[in-house]
# Entry
Amino acid sequence: MSLVFCPQCGLLLPAGSTACPRCGRPAPAPVPAVPHAAVHAAPHYTRAPDHGLRLGDYLGPLLLFCIPLAGLLAAMIWACGGTASAHRRKLAQAYLIQQVIFWAVVLALAVFYMLGLYMQLLQFWAL
Ligand SMILES: [Zn+2]
# Structure
């Protein structure tokens, strides 16, 4: 429940009245206390995820990840919850997963290549 005053004569209007009993001016739309907070909370809540979607929030960490050892360390710390930003944590987790896939492929290719060299050596010695 909130207090509503007549905008013309300043009389405190009785609750639920649609017009001022003194001057007859229509009462302004009441602004209830609890829905007031809900109205302000709702758009903030739905817009909250967008606050982390600025370009700099991704460009900064991605540039940091390019630094050989410090980038990997920062990604590990952030991925384990060392940051208040959920976007940064998930970005770090995604980066680490991408790195694991990348190095697994590199390692597989290296092993494949070494096996090929080994086979060539075996054939060379067999002659
Ligand atoms: Zn009035």
In short: The radius of gyration is 33 Å.
